[in-house]
Amino acid sequence: MASRNLLTVKQFSAEHPAFTEGGLRWQVFHAEGNGLAECGAILRNGRKVLIDVDRYFAWLDQKNGISSVA
Q: How many domains does the structure of the chain reveal?
């Protein structure tokens, strides 16, 4: 099984400064309506929220009509 690139909201924002913690938390709060939950980009373990980086960027590309190159 391949390892997944998982980060907390704070870690994700630190590694990708274009995405603020507040903006990410808003997206996580609305994950059911915006498609993040459906695509598997958001994982929850109790109160901890983790972002699957690869799936998040695939969701962002899809949302903006960009084809993923694999």
A: 1
Closest CA to 19 of 51, 64, 44: 51
Please state the φ and ψ torsions of residue 6, each to the nearest 5 degrees: -110, 135
- 1 within domain boundaries: no
**pLDDT tens, position by position, for the chain (70 residues)?**
678 999 999 999 999 999 999 999 999 999 999 999 999 999 999 999 999 999 999 999 999 988 766 5
Strand ranges for 1-70 from DSSP E: 6-8, 42-45, 48-52
With respect to residue 21, please indicate whether it lies within any of the assigned structural domains.
yes
Q: Are 23 and 69 in contact (CB under 8 A)?
A: no
